[in-house]
Design goal:
The chain contains 13 helices and 7 strands. By secondary structure, the chain is of the alpha/beta class. The protein has a 5-stranded parallel sheet, sandwiched between helices. Strands 6-7 form a two-stranded antiparallel sheet. Helix 8 runs parallel beside helix 10 and helix 9 crosses helix 10 (170-188).
């Protein structure tokens, strides 16, 4: 049984983590599990019963039915109550000593996962910075990918609902993004410099081959993807938990597009994305 090598994508919602995770899995060198840890260890997320990337409910999915993991409602409620961004400064190690069942369930999930995965490299796109800190305090040693996208495009995306994802107003999105970036900064302080990398969504859309090559060098694994003759990419079915509902459409031949984006910098781009070059 191979030990899981965890790649954790951190960032705000609608930054393209679902698409990025699917492309990483398309290399055949890793497994995209979507928001697995948050889905299995947070009661609110678990109760939403969001579909797998294959379209089936998780209990009926050919992959997750083999993993057959249940953290228990007690563990999910406890983690969901404690692991929040507002508790980002909390020392979860002390908390875990008083609740050892959480660590044993975490170890059990990784063991079951390693038996069912063709690759030991697992990509989790939960994005939540508090969960990142929580996983580190549990003993995980993740390779962290900080994924960002032009703030005005993120705001535009959140202004529209997507199936089971509700829309957000502009003010809430702006404040949420600023708070998330602050929490990410705090969570990543505990990550060694060689274990974290920064990726811009726009760079990935422009040249997915080069960005995936960067990630491959970063995690020390052979990842490779190539364009087909019609400039598309072959993206196989994934078994990603939760995440953006667009995952159900991002299979087969996928052509990347920059989409609609304002040519002028907005105030949100300057205030929230200036440090990233937006």
């Amino acid at each position: 049984m191979n030990e899981i090598k965890l790649v954790y994508i951190v960032g705000y919602g609608r930054v393209g983590s679902t698409l990025f995770g699917n492309f990483l899995a398309a290399t055949g060198g890793c497994v995209n599990v979507g928001e697995m840890y948050k889905c299995f260890f947070d009661e609110d997320m678990y109760q939403k019963s969001l579909p797998c990337g294959c379209g089936d409910d998780l209990p009926r999915c050919s992959f997750w039915s083999k993993v057959d993991f249940d953290a228990s409602s007690e563990v999910r409620r406890e983690v969901g109550r404690k692991v929040r961004n507002r508790h980002i400064f909390r020392n979860f190690k002390t908390y875990l000593k008083n609740f050892p069942k959480i660590k044993s369930r975490f170890k059990e999930l990784n063991e079951r996962l390693s038996k069912c995965c063709e690759s030991n490299v697992v990509v989790d796109s939960s994005k939540n910075p508090a969960f990142l800190k929580f996983l580190v305090d549990l003993g995980a040693e993740p390779y962290v990918i900080h994924l960002v996208r032009r703030p005005s495009d993120v705001i535009r995306s959140w202004s529209k609902s997507k199936r089971y994802l509700k829309k957000k107003n502009i003010i809430k999105t702006i404040f949420d993004m600023a708070y998330y970036e602050y929490c990410i900064k705090v969570a990543c302080k505990e990550i060694a410099r060689h274990k974290k990398i920064f990726v811009k969504y726009e760079d990935f859309i422009e040249s997915p081959e080069s960005e995936i090559e960067r990630v491959a060098k970063f995690i020390g694994e052979p990842l490779f993807i190539s364009r087909l003759e019609d400039d598309s990419f072959d993206v196989p079915l994934s078994h990603s938990c939760a995440g953006n509902p667009s995952k159900l459409d991002q299979v087969g031949r996928v052509t990347l597009s920059k989409g609609k984006s304002c040519s002028r910098r907005s105030l949100s781009d300057v205030l929230l994305g200036g440090k990233y070059g937006y």
